[in-house]
Amino acid sequence: MGLNHLVYQLYERRLQREIRPDRLPRHVGAIVDGNRRWAKGAGADLVGGYRAGADKIVEFVGWCDELGIEIVTLWVLSTDNLARPADELRGLLAVIEQLAETLAGTGRRRVQLLGSLDLLPPDTAERLKRTAESTSGVEGSVVNVCVGYGGRQELTDAIRSLLLTEAEAGRSLADVAHTLDVDDIAEHLYTKGMPDPDLVIRTSGEQRLSGFLLWQSVHSEFYFCDALWPAFRRVDFLRALRSYAGRERRFGR
């Protein structure tokens, strides 16, 4: 074992000791950014970068399992990404399909899909749905895979769903407008029934949400990391958790 590796392990253990278990987030969201830039720097092709990012997601979910984090939400494909060149998109979708199957295959977490699956190629959408359904009986922890996801798209879909539901119940637009409140909209979000994220992590040095969980992240804590996603280490994750644990959450009060 090299000296650098030993020092790294000691630092990692120290970080973990500094985080009180009762101060860990219940729900962590991650914007897994930087796969393309990592591929360029590593001399790999784009699909190689996406594969490295998918491998890191599997590793990341494992870290969350070890710490008892109940819900992990990962943004792997935005609605904007669907406009990428056909060859690149085809490779990315293949990686996402395999990623979902790998996550489902552990049997430790229920896999849920968040996004507008009707925007995806039908064969991809069907394969992802089958994979998610294969975990429907798993109790407890959840990993949400955001694919074909956009914050504005989610809100549009939520309002559409709400209006259709109310119309089926025989209510007019005027009736809906007079009684509408935030809980009504929340009941039609992709994350219906789940707690909002406590902590949102974004890698690659970008300091913006880009529409990730727009509604749900109103009281979330944010942590921005310079590391490109495939290079994100467990110590980076522990630093994010330490930062979160040291904050006083006010929830707008």
Rg, please?
19 Å
Number of helices: 9
CATH uppermost class: Alpha Beta
Strand content: 5-15%
CATH superfamily: Decaprenyl diphosphate synthase-like
Write down the overall mean pLDDT: 94
- The end-to-end span amounts to 50 Å
Q: How would you sum up the major sheet?
A: 6 strands, parallel
Coarse structural class: alpha/beta
* Cα shape: globular
Encode the helix/strand succession as letters: HEHHEHEHEHHHEEH
Number of domains: 1
* Tally of strands: 6
Low-confidence residue ranges: none
CATH topology: Undecaprenyl pyrophosphate synthetase
Proper CATH architecture: 3-Layer(aba) Sandwich
**How much helix is in the residues?**
40-55%
| Spatial arrangement of strands, main beta sheet | 3-4-2-1-5-6
Name the quaternary structure: single chain
Describe the 3D structure.
The protein has 253 residues and is an alpha/beta fold. The protein has one domain: Undecaprenyl pyrophosphate synthetase (3-Layer(aba) Sandwich). Helix content is 47%, strand content 13%. It contains 9 helices and 6 strands; from the N terminus they run H-E-H-H-E-H-E-H-E-H-H-H-E-E-H. The protein has helices at 3-18, 35-42, 46-67, 86-105, 122-133, 151-168, 173-179, 182-186, 234-245; strands spanning 27-31, 71-78, 110-114, 142-149, 199-202, 221-224. A 6-stranded parallel beta sheet has the order 3-4-2-1-5-6, sandwiched between helices. Helix 2 (35-42) packs across helix 3 (46-67). The longest helix is centred in the first third of the chain and has 22 residues, at 46-67. It starts with a helix and ends in an 8-residue tail after the last helix.
